[in-house]
TrEMBL record:
Keyword Transferase set for record: yes
Keywords attached to this entry: Glycosyltransferase, Transferase
Residues annotated as domain Glycosyl hydrolase family 13 catalytic: 53-449
UniProt cross-references to SMART domains, sorted A to Z: Aamy
UniProt cross-references to CDD domains, sorted A to Z: AmyAc_Sucrose_phosphorylase-like_1 (cd11356)
Superkingdom as given in the UniProt entry: Bacteria
GO molecular function, one term: glycosyltransferase activity
PANTHER family tied to this protein: SUCROSE PHOSPHORYLASE
Protein's name according to its UniProt entry: Alpha-amylase
Record Gene3D superfamilies: Glycosidases, Golgi alpha-mannosidase II, Oligo-1,6-glucosidase, Domain 2
């Protein structure tokens, strides 16, 4: 069955090649001699994750001290602060790299010696479910593969996507404003190579099956080193051709299906997560028919939650949530607000009106943030992302209110904890990190504003001082995550319905898979006190209801008050 399905996918991707020969090559790449695979595929189910799952996102060098390996320090931080709080850790690209903080990979098979080595990665993976990045769209222009391409050395002489300035490239969708093509001199003569992201990140040419085979060998290496969640970075741009948008191409989806097929037959529980910062329908397409990604990012969440917190109104966030279908069986949403990248604005195209987007941009700039642009097909620019620490983005609201920043920020993170899916939190959300303008000036890119590198002694001192914002945010986020992990109503696939008791309250009802627990998760996104009738939640009268966060008993026939930015998880406890 595996070979039949594999041949069918390879026929779609490479119709001019012998699918049988390619299938054998794929199997040898992913399961080299000595490796075994399942006899039957792993069937779609909701057993790959639970309410105990939450993930911290971090760079390998987000914590430094000048004396120890950064991965050593990260392991110590995770052991000290995250044990029993999160189940997984996403270590952003830890390979030798020439730019873009790891996303211009020079060598897929090595750990950057400035961070540590594979033993450090394995140690983290032994304690937490480990996620790594498969930066499969492009590699560094300074890496061995591209150097061999320039010298005309096979097989790398056919590893990179070439085009001509005379080609019709007007329809190409891109997240950057830099020129798409880069002129290079090779042993074969002058060429123009395709660079979706930057001229230091040269796109691989997956039209050559040898590229796919080499990427599969890299995937196998990472799995052998303990990685269990594979983040397919920039996967939407994988297959490109002049005269097309070169995004979400059919061959791209077929390659994701091929990787999912291999994962389903792997003896290790491998999960695929697609990184596609695009509007809703395009993003959800990567679930396929339960045969592509296990998880997809909820990219509209960061801007929509931010808008709700700054405006004090959940209307647009609630409308989007109501229109979101439940994840298919065997699939889950990946929920977050902050990450190593900026707050993407493309996913809210058609959701937030232009005047609301303009208000967000103005407020983020007032809060010390920056705005990055993208090129539009045919010319012009549009906002691509807001660059700002998520904690600093809460400094003041549309109304100019500056108080309650910690409560406002905690409310935003609690929303992520409450929704269907698996919650993920950037390390700088746990540590209430502020904008790093010095890093922007030193490194020459807007995204550096939210990629602060902590001195570990300084960070520990802050976390040990209960008067600091870092200590207060860390303590409360840990408390809420520990409570969450004990609630079956917060299983990533537990039923979710969106209620509307008040435009200042985001309210979702979650029900456990066995229907034994109901949780009404309510979040006051405003600076006002809000009071609602408990009757509006339809609390079952003959059960005991209690707010899991405050411990208060809730009277189904009474009223429920919310202080500014207060969150309540009202659950049946009887």
């Amino acid at each position: 069955m595996l070979q039949t399905h594999l041949r069918g996918l390879l026929q779609q991707i490479y119709p001019a090649r012998d699918a049988g020969d390619l299938a054998r090559a794929v199997l040898a790449a992913f399961w080299p001699e000595g490796r075994t695979r399942r006899q039957r595929p792993r069937r779609p189910s909701n057993n790959l994750w639970s309410e105990r799952d939450a993930i911290v996102i971090t760079y390998g060098n987000s914590i430094e001290d000048g004396a120890h390996k950064p991965l050593d320090l990260l392991h110590d931080f995770l052991r000290r602060e995250m044990t029993g709080v999160v189940d997984g850790v996403h270590v952003l690209p830890f390979f030798p790299s020439s730019s873009d903080d790891g996303f211009a990979v020079m060598d897929y098979r090595e750990v950057d010696p400035a961070l540590g080595d594979w033993s450090d990665i394995r140690r983290i993976g032994a304690a937490f479910s480990l996620m790594s990045d498969m930066v499969l769209n492009h590699v560094s222009s300074q890496g061995a593969w591209f150097t061999a391409y320039l010298q005309g050395q096979p097989p790398y002489d056919r590893f990179f996507m070439e085009a001509s300035p005379e080609d019709d490239l007007s329809a190409v969708v891109r997240p950057r404003t830099s020129p798409l093509l880069r002129a290079v001199t090779t042993a074969m003569g002058p060429r123009h190579v395709w660079c979706t992201f930057s001229h230091d990140q040269v796109d691989l040419d997956f039209r050559n099956p040898e590229v796919l085979l080499e990427i599969l060998r890299v995937l196998r290496l990472h799995i052998d080193e303990g990685v269990r969640i594979i983040r397919l970075d920039a996967v939407a741009f994988l297959w490109k051709a002049p005269g097309t948008p070169s995004i979400h191409m059919p061959q791209t989806h077929a390659i994701v299906k091929l990787m999912r097929l291999l994962a389903d037959y792997a003896t290790e529980p491998v999960i695929l997560l697609t990184e596609t910062n695009v509007p809703k329908a395009e993003n959800l397409s990567y679930f396929g028919r339960r045969d592509e990604a296990h998880m997809v990012y909820q990219f509209p969440l960061p801007p929509l939650v931010l808008h709700a917190m700054l405006s004090g109104n959940v209307r647009y966030l609630r409308r989007w949530l109501r229109a979101m279908p439940p994840a298919p069986l065997g699939c889950a949403y990946f929920n977050f607000t902050a990450s190593h990248d900026g707050i993407g604005m493309r996913p809210v195209e058609g959701i937030l009106p232009p005047e609301e987007i303009a208000a967000m941009i103005d407020c983020v700039r007032d809060n010390g943030g920056l705005v990055s642009m993208r090129a539009l097909p045919g010319g012009g620019e549009a906002p691509y992302e807001l660059n700002c620490s998520y904690f600093d983005a809460m400094r003041r609201t549309f109304a100019g209110e500056e108080g309650d920043r910690i409560a406002r920020f905690l409310c935003s993170q609690t929303i992520v904890m409450s929704l269907e899916g698996i919650p993920a939190f950037y390390i700088h959300s746990f540590t209430a990190t502020e904008n790093d303008h010095t890093a922007v000036a030193q490194r020459g890119m807007n995204r550096a504003i939210n990629r602060h590198r902590w001195s570990y002694p300084a960070l520990c001192a802050r976390l040990d001082d209960p008067a600091t914002a870092a200590a207060q945010v860390m303590a409360e986020m840990k408390r809420r995550l520990r409570i969450r992990a004990r609630q079956p109503g917060f299983h990533p696939n537990a039923t979710q319905l969106t209620l509307a008791p008040d435009d200042r309250l985001l309210c979702v009802w979650r029900q456990s898979l066995d229907r034994g627990q109901s949780i009404f998760a309510l979040h006051n996104v405003s600076a006002e006190t809000v009071v609602i009738d408990a009757f509006s939640l339809n609390l079952i009268a003959d059960e005991d209801w209690r707010d899991l966060l405050s411990g208060e008993a809730i009277d189904p026939d009474g009223t429920i008050a919310f202080a500014p930015y207060q969150c309540r998880w009202i659950a049946n406890t009887g």
